[in-house]
Amino acid sequence: MKAERRQEPPPGLRSARLRPRAAPGSGRSWGRRLSKNPVPDLEKAATAYITASEVLGNAERWVYQQGVILGDFCQHLRGEGIHHLTDAEPHHLTAFLAACKAAGQSPATLHRKGTVIRAWARWALASGYRKRAPLATARLRTPRRPPLELAQFSEVLEAILGCWNRDYREAFLVLLGAGLRRGELLALRWLDCDLSAGILMVRPHPSGWTPKSRNARAVGIPGWVIEVLANRKTQLGRHGPFQDEEGAPICHESTLSHAWVRLSRARKLGMALKDLRHAHATEALQRGATIRELQAQLGHASVTTTEIYTHVDRKSAARVASAMEGAMPARAEAK
């Protein structure tokens, strides 16, 4: 495995506590997105915000993504002749997002970029870093969530069982049966797995990985997931269910997603890897789990978020109609 080359940050970033790291597989730090001769005010403001994000305990990948977004936006502002954060207006953000849209980026990506940039300006005001930041008043259009039609749970399960690679097949089975995020799956260690009780603990690790919600939680797993994990523990004997002999994940998160895309297309499921969490929540709800129990299982801070993950399949309408058959009491025939 080739060691990633560490890119030196621009001169103005070297004194910051950010310690820019390259994203896995990218070979470059977010600081490279800033100009070789960055404008001091924009650079200092961006670096201060990213450093604050890291100090608050945000995940390393999210810190990196925010840095890339702000680096691109600073370059855009330079092209518009803007040299200070206080001079950046909402219409500059609109023009930046329009350019990103013209480059083919999705509405969700545009909204994420706009949210980060606006949060940057709001942080500058709230922290007293700047007394004026017009970007803080920018309005963003929330992208319309496309309707999601989940395939039948049995179809998804059959497709996973037909996967060509054992590691991917068993990873997909655990994701479907436990409702984990892909990062949570790859970070699992055997000390987190209580197979006798059927419980997985999702919690931070000394290696620096933390759950998205930052809080540890217990995840219940069915018998068929326990069997998968028990076989892996007996036959592979690694540091964790999906870690190699050195304790590193068996694959990168994006590699796991790409493998699922291949499988989904071959089986015509029309589902992304994250939709396995939707399928898990929907099936558990239909089998008697409560929304509060699902909230704890999925690690959501709000029940509203959990409700987004629950869907109805194509046979739900017929089942509801069948259940309502006995709601109307028998009536005497009209004389």
Kindly summarize this structure in a few lines.
This protein is mostly helical. The chain contains 13 helices and 3 strands; from the N terminus they run H-H-H-H-H-H-H-E-E-E-H-H-H-H-H-H.
* Count of strand segments: 3
Strand fraction equals under 5%
CATH topology term of the largest domain: hpI Integrase, Chain A
Q: Class of the largest domain in CATH? A: Mainly Alpha
The first-to-last residue Cα distance is 86 Å
As residue ranges, the low-confidence spans are: 1-39, 331-335
Biggest sheet layout: 3 strands, antiparallel
How many domains is the backbone divided into?
Answer: 2
Multimeric state? single chain
Biggest sheet strand order reads 1-2-3
Based on CA atoms alone, the radius of gyration comes out at: 24 Å
CATH structural architecture of the largest domain: Orthogonal Bundle
Into which percent range does the helicity of residues fall? 40-55%
**What integer is the average pLDDT?**
79
Order of helices and strands: HHHHHHHEEEHHHHHH
Q: What structural class do the secondary elements suggest?
A: mainly alpha
What is the CATH superfamily label of the largest domain?
Answer: Intergrase catalytic core
Number of helices: 13
Shape: globular
